[in-house]
Amino acid sequence: MNKCDIKILILSVIIGATLVGASAAALSQPNEGSMVKTEMKKEFSTDHLTDLQKRVTLKGGTEPPFKNEYWDNKAEGIYVDIIDGTPLFSSTTKYESGTGWPSFTAPINDSAVTEHEDNGLFMKRTEIKSASTDSHLGHVFNDGPKDQGGLRYCMNSASMKFIPKADLESEGYGDYLKLFN
């Protein structure tokens, strides 16, 4: 095995571990993720999150492509932060990117998300986090539809909850009905 083969093998193992999941030990830390404290010193309960949702939002994990809840969701509605319900993305900017993750051309409001440099996996990327909870949502890339700004917000389903258009009013998001008119 030459040096190139070894590097490819190591990279494959790292990517596989990231996509498939964190170790059981990392998920079973005592009280890990029961509360999230953001830079604004607010605390949000994360007790309602599944192990996958905790791994993605709190530890910066990535769910498998094509095996996540919203990658092929075509219903009208909005996607909110799974931790505190802050509106993040709308189906009006969602498109089929072919990547296996929900992809959007823009957030509902630019101030709902923050950008952070991510040098993991031997590459430079821009991580997207929820501004309200500082939870990991996904990454943004410059390969989106050019006629819509050229950005692809590649998000994890596990970091969001989908609110169908028909339920926006009853769920307290009635102001967002204007996105669909």
- CATH topology call: Metal Binding Protein, Guanine Nucleotide Exchange Factor, Chain A
Helix content: 10-25%
Strand order of the largest sheet: 5-6-10-9-8-7
| Highest CATH level, the class | Mainly Beta
Structural class: alpha+beta
Low-confidence stretches: 1-33
Assign the CATH superfamily: Peptide methionine sulfoxide reductase
Helix count, per DSSP? 3
Structural notes for this entry:
There is one protein chain. 17% of the residues lie in helices and 25% in strands. It has helices at residues 3-20, 24-27, 51-59; strands at 35-37, 43-45, 77-81, 87-90, 94-95, 103-104, 113-118, 125-130, 136-141, 152-155, 160-164. Mean pLDDT is 83; it is low at 1-33. The strands form 3 sheets. Strands 5-6-10-9-8-7 form a 6-stranded antiparallel beta sheet. The protein has a single domain, classed as Metal Binding Protein, Guanine Nucleotide Exchange Factor, Chain A, CATH 2.170.150. The chain is an alpha+beta fold and 181 residues long. The termini are far apart.
